[in-house]
Amino acid sequence: MTFRTRFRYRFGDIDDAGIAYYPKLLHYFHCAFEDWWSDALGRPYALLMHEDKLGLPAVKLEAEFFAPVRYGDEPWVHLGVLRLGTSSVEFGFWMTKAKEAAPLCRARVLTAAVDMETMKKRKLPEVWREKFEGFLLSEADFPRGR
Amino acid sequence: MTFRTRFRYRFGDIDDAGIAYYPKLLHYFHCAFEDWWSDALGRPYALLMHEDKLGLPAVKLEAEFFAPVRYGDEPWVHLGVLRLGTSSVEFGFWMTKAKEAAPLCRARVLTAAVDMETMKKRKLPEVWREKFEGFLLSEADFPRGR
Amino acid sequence: MTFRTRFRYRFGDIDDAGIAYYPKLLHYFHCAFEDWWSDALGRPYALLMHEDKLGLPAVKLEAEFFAPVRYGDEPWVHLGVLRLGTSSVEFGFWMTKAKEAAPLCRARVLTAAVDMETMKKRKLPEVWREKFEGFLLSEADFPRGR
Amino acid sequence: MTFRTRFRYRFGDIDDAGIAYYPKLLHYFHCAFEDWWSDALGRPYALLMHEDKLGLPAVKLEAEFFAPVRYGDEPWVHLGVLRLGTSSVEFGFWMTKAKEAAPLCRARVLTAAVDMETMKKRKLPEVWREKFEGFLLSEADFPRGR
Question: Fewer Cβ atoms within 10 Å of its own Cβ: the N or the C terminal residue of chain A?
Fold first, then answer.
C-alpha cells in the first residue's frame, strides 16, 4: 500500500524559467510526508515531535526531475517506505499529474529517528515500525521516469 | 540616516506572472532588517533573540507595490525608523533599483518589543532606543511611488 | 457570502521564533485567493491568466497579526470582497483556528485588473464583476482582532 | 579552483525543529550557482537565460545533511564542477561554517544544457565549457561529512 495526497501547485512556487523551482518540489514531498502522518497514521507530525519527542530529519536524499511541473497543475504525491532500519527509514516519493500517470519527479529520502530533545539517534519505536511496514514499497514499484 | 543593503533578487522568488511574488518582497524587507542588526547595530538579531531574549515581531504592516521586480535585478533595500514608542517601533522599508532611484515598493512595519521567553510586550531597552533614534526618518522622507 | 478554505500550516513555514513567518501568512492568503478561483468561481486562476489574459496583481496591502500561528495548526482562511472598482478589487482575508473563531491575522489586499500581455490596467470584465458581487463583505463584517 | 560565496542564513528559512528546512539548503546552493555566474563567470544567469536562451535545469540531485544549520549562521557555499558532458554538467556544492571547515551538507546536482525557447537539450557552448573546466573538482576533493 502506498499513500497519496493531492496538492495545488502554487502561483508563488515558480522560478524564472516559468516552471516549478526544484527546492519547492522537495517541499511538496515534505508536505506529503506531513499529510501521511495526519491522514494515514493518525498522529500529526507536530504532535509526534512536540509530545512524543520523536523526529525524522532527512540525512540523505536523491531526487530526479523527469518533466516540468507548472502553475495550475494539481499533482498527486505518492509515498512509500523503501527501507526500514533500526533507527532509519527510507521513503520514496513521486509526483504524478493524474493518479496513475508516469512520474514527473521522484525522490528517495533517508531519514534518521532522533530524540527531539537531544537530536541524537534513537531506535524507531515498535508501534511506528509496524505501521510503516504497511507502506513498504519494493524498488520495482518505485516508478521511474520515461 | 537610513540604512541600506543590496540583494540579488533570486531565481526561485518569482511567481507565475514572471515577476516577484509579493510575499517574497516582504521577505527581502525582513532580510534587510536582519542586515541592519548585524551591520549597522553590531548585534546580530539571532543573538538579540537568543541571548538578550528580545524580539521585534511584526504586529501590523502596510505595503505598496509600485513597479515589478524581476529576476536579475539587484535591488537596494533601505530602512528607516518612522516612529519610536515605549515598546513599539515602526520601520519604513523601500526597495530601489539603483541607490537613489524611485521606489519599486515600500512597506511600513509596526513591531512590538517582546520578551522572547514569555512573548509578552516589554519596554524597549534604552540602549536600543538610542541607537534607533539615529535612524529616524520623517514621513516626508519615506519615498512614495510615482 | 464569504469563501473559506482550510490549510495545514506547514513544517517549513516557521521562523526562528518558532511561529509562522509573516510573509508566509500572506502566502497562505494568496493560496486562498487561488482556491477561491478554482472552487468558488469555477475558473482556475492559472487559466484566467494564461487563456483569458487577465490578472489581479496586488498593488497595496495592509496586514495585522493578532496571535501566533504554529506548526500543527490547521487554520481556515476566509475571503470577502471589500470594495469593487472599475478596474480594481479590494479583498479582505482573515485566518481563524476554527471556522467561527476570532481572527489570528487579517489583511486587506487591493488588486488591479491588468492585461497579462501588456501588464496595463484594464476594466474588470462584467462576468467577474457580477460574480465578485456575491462575495461582498461590509467593513463591519471584516473581523477585527481582540 | 572552486568558487565560494557567503550567505546569511535567514530568520524565515527555519523549520519547526528550529533548524534549516532542508529544501531551503538546496535553495542556498542554487543561490551560490547564481552568484557563480555573476561573480566568477561574469554573465548573470538571468542574461544567460533571457538573452543567450541557455539554461541549466537540474535533472538529478543527491544531497547529504551532516550537521544542522541554524539562524545566525553565516555559512560559505562552495561550488565545483564534478563532471562535464557534451550537454550536461554535474556540480558539487557544499556548505561550511568557516571557509575551511568540514561540510554541514553537500549536494551533487546534474544539470542539462537546454535551449530556453524549446526546453530541448542542446550542446553546451564551447565558451562555457572552457570556463567550466577551470572549476573542475575531483571526487577526492568533494568533501565528505564526518
Answer: C
- Touching C: A residues 25-44, CB under 8 Å: 27, 30-31, 34-35, 38, 44
CA dihedral C10, B19, D25, A128 (to 10 degrees): 20
Using CB atoms, which chains have 3+ pairs under 8 A with B? A, C, D
The set of cell numbers assigned to B122 is 516589554
Task: Give Cα separations from C47 to A38, C38, C80 (angstroms).
Answer: 32, 10, 22
Residue C146: the pLDDT is 67
Q: How many CB pairs under 8 A join B and D?
A: 42
Contacts of C16 in chain B (CB under 8 A): 46, 49
> Which grid cell is A99?
493518479
Grid cell digits, residue A108: 528517495
What confidence category does residue B14 fall into, taking pLDDT thresholds of 50, 70 and 90?
A: very high
D18 touches B: beta carbon within 8 Å: no
Q: What is the pLDDT of residue A99?
A: 81
Q: Which residue in D16, D23, D72 is closest to C14 by CB distance?
A: D16
D74-132 pLDDT, tens digit per residue, is 999 999 999 999 999 999 999 999 887 899 999 999 999 999 999 999 999 999 999 99
Q: What are phi and psi of A138, to 5 degrees?
A: -75, 155
Q: What is the mean pLDDT of chain D?
A: 97
Please state, in angstroms and rounded to a whole number, the distance separating the CA atoms of residues C25 and C31: 10
Encoded amino acid at A17, one letter: A
Q: What is the DSSP letter of B72?
A: T
pLDDT band at A110 (very low <50, low <70, confident <90, very high): very high
Distance of CA B101 to the CA centre of its chain: 18
Digit-coded pLDDT (tens) for B104-138: 999 999 999 999 999 999 999 999 999 999 999 99
DSSP B36: I
- Give the phi and the psi of residue B141 in degrees, each rounded to 5: -95, 0
Phi, psi (degrees; rounded to nearest 5) at D72: 105, -25
CA–CA dist D112, D73 (Å, integer): 32
Question: What 3-state class would DSSP assign to B17?
Answer: coil
Q: Which residues contact C26 (CB under 8 A, 6 or more apart)?
A: B22, B23, B26, C61, C63, C107
Q: Which long-range contacts (CB under 8 A, 24 or more apart) does C95-101 make?
A: C95/C25, C95/C28, C95/C29, C95/C69, C97/C73, C99/C4
Contacts of D87 (CB under 8 A, 6+ apart): D112, D113, D121, D122, D123, D124
Tell me whether D145 touches chain A (CB under 8 Å). no
DSSP 3-state of C91: strand
Residue A93 burial by CB count (10 A; 0-12/13-18/19+): exposed, middle or buried?
Answer: buried
Q: Which residues of C touch A21 (CB under 8 A)?
A: none
Distance of CA B45 to the CA centre of its chain: 12
Name which residue leads in pLDDT, A102 or B99: A102
Residues B34, D11: C-beta atoms closer than 8 Å = yes
Show Cβ contacts of residue C70 under 8 Å, excluding neighbours closer than 6 positions: A46, C9, C14, C18, C19, C20, D16
With an 8 Å Cβ cutoff, is D55 touching chain A?
yes
